[in-house]
Amino acid sequence: MRIRTVALLAGLAVAAAASPATAQVPPVAANGCLMCHGVQGQGANGIPAIMRVQSRAEFTTTMKLFAENKKPGTIMGRIARGYTDEDLAELAAWFGKP
Ligand code: HEC
Question: Ligand 1 center to residue 51 CA distance, Å?
C-alpha cells in the first residue's frame, strides 16, 4: 500500500513536471505568493495583482529583475532570489498570460 502510494505520487510529480503549461493546480512554489498577492493572485491590501497580468516572458523578466536588484521593491527582491529557474518557469506558466 505504502509503495503504491509512493509510486503514484512519483507518477504525478513526473506528469506535473512534464506539462507546466497545462497545469490545473498551482505549483507548490505559488503557495508562498498567495498570502500576500491574494488567494487568487488578484492583489490584496495594496499589493499588486499577479494573476494573468503579465505575459509569461514579462513575468519571468520581472522576477529576475527583482532577484538581481534591478527592479525596486520592498520585499520582492529577497523573495525572487529564493526560486530556481525551474521554479520561475512553473510560476510563469501559472501566473502569466497564456
Ligand atoms: C511578503 C509579501 C509578498 C510575497 C510573499 C510575495 N510578494 Fe510579490 N510583491 C509584493 C509587494 C509588496 C510587491 C510590490 C513590489 C515590492 O515592494 O517589492 C510585489 C510585486 C510583485 C510583482 C510585480 C507586480 C507588478 O505589477 O509590478 C510580481 C510579478 C510578484 N510580486 C510576484 C510574486 C511571486 C511570483 C511571489 C511568490 C513566489 C510573490 N510575489 C510573493 C509582496 C509579496
Answer: 11
